[in-house]
């Protein structure tokens, strides 16, 4: 059964619970540091990965928050949405298409995340994206916003908004694009051929994606491509050694929050 106190204890949070910016910022970062992203279960879900966008809250809570497994965007952002609503925040469901290796974007309904309005300002709230991305919520604005050595902007592109990230080296890179409006879960009931085809491509590739944040960055494992983002610097290695690969997987999915560079 979903339990706010158990959830907050899992995140190691003991502060105030009023719906304010400091609370949102602290909970967001703690969530990314505590509960990992893990796409392993998607391998058993076939070509309809979004059949449970409207998650079974109690079941998912028992498996992820209490049971300790990682989750994907629908689960992690779904649980966090319920937590925020129970604390008095007003939360909208958003969706996005993530940037692919060839520079294109996935289908509009591919990635599920949240948005919160506080004192008239709209924030992007996303604890279910493996990264590299923001550790604390960012304002829906094209003004540069600095976090831990990275700079983020949300720019217009026709009817879309595009999330951009720039580290200490190089220029801005696209992360994902979205339409700035609340989504209904009914939109995923008939997701369309593009989303099904996208899911089939993911299944065929068979690449597992895992990630967890730490105090000044993120650890991201896509297959054997291991990216550590620390203070705005990206470090990429390919983990050829099986023992090292298992060690990194255990670090990301385990209970420790130590840094690995």
UniProtKB/TrEMBL annotation:
Question: Which InterPro entries does the record match to this protein?
Answer: Arylamine_N-AcTrfase, Papain-like_cys_pep_sf
SUPFAM superfamilies named in the record? Cysteine proteinases (SSF54001)
Q: Which GO terms describe its molecular function?
A: acetyltransferase activity
Classification via Pfam families: Acetyltransf_2
Q: Where would one find the signal peptide in this protein?
A: none
Give the protein family.
Answer: Belongs to the arylamine N-acetyltransferase family.
Its recorded name reads Amide synthase
**Taxonomic lineage of this organism?**
Bacteria, Bacillati, Actinomycetota, Actinomycetes, Streptosporangiales
